[in-house]
Amino acid sequence: MVVASVSGLHQHVSLSLGQLLQSGEIVAIVDDDAAIREPLRYYFAEHGLPVAECASAAELMQVMASRNVALVILDIGLPDTDGLSLLPQIVEKYPDAAVVMLTGVADLRVALDCMRKGATDYLSKPVQFEEIFYVARKALEKRRLIFENRKYQEELEEAHSRMQLLHQLSVKMNTVYLSTGELDQILRTVLVGITSQEGLGFNRAFLVMFDEDGRFLRGRMAIGPSSREEAGRVWEEIEKRKLDFLQIVDNLKETNTTQDAMVNNIARALVVSVEDKENLLICAALRRRSYKVAPENGWVPVLIERRGRNSDDKLKTWAMTHRHRVKAEEVVPAVAVPRDLINILDEDYFVVVPLYSPGRSFGVIIADNYVTRMGIEASHISALELFASQASLAIEQSLLHNERQRKIAELEAVNQELDRSKDLLVEAERYSALGHMAAQLVHIIRNPITSIGGVSRILDKKNIDPEWTKYLNVIIHETERVEAILEDLFDFVKQGEIHKEALSLGAVIEKTALLLQTSMVKNGVTWEMEGADPELIIQGDMHQIRQMFIILFKNAIEAMSDGGRLSIILAAAEGQASVSVIDNGPGIPESYLDKVKDPFFTTKTYGTGMGLTLVERIVSNHGGSFSLKPHPGGGLEVRVMLPLQ
Question: Looking at the domain assignment, is residue 594 inside a domain?
């Protein structure tokens, strides 16, 4: 922007004199005529401009070398050199100084020559002091505008570079985000993005996130060097290996370096209750605002204001510059001085930026320059906020993905349970129909079988023919077998009421074993019982409990047809009584263990296949469980667990 010289004294000037000159800057008046130089100095001083007088070019160069000259009012005719020849030297050596030329000759060509050589403006003598002052002021304004334009240009270039950096970083981050749904991997990528040279370039970064129930902010993960020496070594290694962003992320997955372990120990020490409403980290997370803590602010957290915040927050502060003012609607609520946080981090200069989505807050990022001790500019915080917003979306995506996977797993489990329930319902209906049919068959068949058996025994007693005795014995034996099958079937299908009472488990087992003593002697089986504690008392139906042990003992005796030992071990654990029935027979193949509880499944030549099914029902009726497994010493171990009284 070019500001032309304008004659006249009543033009509007937008900037005050205090804003035209920086601290220590002066105006140099160069003229060999003291009658012009001295009054002009007084006039400028009266109007608030500090002035230095120079009678020659040599004096001017001395002043400019020793002091900060903002404006030179230069007479063309000087005793030691021509002002027009001096002008290019001033412009080249002091490009930030403005120059207004004074001449006693009103020559347009001279004026144009001055302007081409770098003069800001041109005045012809004689001229009033008011007009000289006005032109000087306009020259200083033009100089100030040039400075501001240069500053804005640098800021635009910096913003453009930062936007390019953020764009490249976003592309790389998205590459990782889209390739994984694992939250820890995403968090590691976020930390690398904050600290890597390809990223935002902070020295250290800490992720402090809400726990699952939202009651505490807890340090989740961190990255950064533990010292300047460590930082130098790490940065040198990265430079030597020429690791790019994605390689650093992959390398971080595979290694857990010492410095990262140290900063992670620091992170784990960060625990803040959500009830501590004035704590810096809680304020940043819940208010969704960024704060900077720095020594120059007395370590008081400074709220970082951003345009475009939600209007309902009403947490605005006064902001004053020479161009605009933002009015506060409310005073920012107090935030606790984070002395404990400073002690944990061992750092008093850091920034806290929130992580959040529209629906919930995730926590905060703490970033600092622990090693380089560099300041944290507003542009760095803006970039970190933009980065945090993208990281928040990735975190939410990961959490939603995990939640979706959990829901899918729950639905699959429910679906499997429904399938099992459907199968159980079908099986229950089948068993119900089978039970009704079996009950009718038992009732219909039992009377004829009983008659056949009774008549056969009577005939056997009266018969004296050995040939007929052989046939009658077959009839009697098979009749007894059918009666046993009918009895087991009847016991299985009948739904009698359970009458529970206090039972001494050891006494019940001992009496049951004595009932089968004859069968044991016949098969050469001995038995023993260990741990018959009288305190093992259960609540159970006497008839069903005895029936259960009869089935288990008979199975064990029949498995040891060539003799053996039946071991019964009683124990108590965690409020339950444990009864182990162990035989040393041939055992059951492991492939059959899942089937032996099924109705009508048997490994015996003669057997109903209903015994263990009935045992399972009795145990279930008493709130217990039972299992079968091969015994290490050979044979089979059946373990029954029943609740103690």
Answer: yes
Query: Bridge-partner residues for 71, per DSSP?
Result: 27, 98
Cα atoms in the 13 Å half-sphere on the side-chain side of 546: 15
Q: Report pLDDT for 323.
A: 33
Cα–Cα distance list, 561 to 161, 548, 554, 564 (Å): 92, 21, 11, 8
Domain boundaries, position 109: 17-153
Residues 142 and 29 placed together within one structural domain of the fold:
yes
The verdict on residue 389 lying in a domain is no
In order, the DSSP letters of 472-516 are HHHHHHHHHHHHHHHHHHHHHH--PPP-EEEEEHHHHHHHHHHHT
Task: Give the pLDDT band (50/70/90) at residue 330.
Answer: very low
Which two structure tokens, joined as six digits, stand for 56? 């020659």
Answer yes or no: are the C-beta atoms of 60 and 28 closer than 8 Å. Answer: yes
> To which H or E segment does residue 604 belong?
none
Distance of alpha carbon 210 from alpha carbon 356, whole angstroms: 11
Residues 441 and 411 in one domain: yes
CATH code for position 125: 3.40.50.2300
**Looking at residue 77, what DSSP letter applies?**
B
Q: Give the Cα separation of 517 and 525 in Å (integer).
A: 9
Q: Quick count: other Cβ atoms within 10 Å of Cβ 205?
A: 25
What is the C-alpha separation between 533 and 644, in angstroms, rounded? 12
Which residues sit opposite 29 in a β-bridge? 53, 73
- Of the three residues 475, 492, 509, the one that is the final residue of a domain is 492
Out of 41-45, 289-293, 456-460, 627-631, least confident range: 456-460
Among candidate residues 313, 344, 317, 312, the one with its CA nearest the CA of residue 328: 317
**pLDDT tens, 444-477?**
777 787 778 777 778 777 777 777 877 777 787 7
Are residues 35 and 68 located together in one domain of the fold?
yes
**Residue 158's pLDDT band (cuts 50, 70, 90):** confident
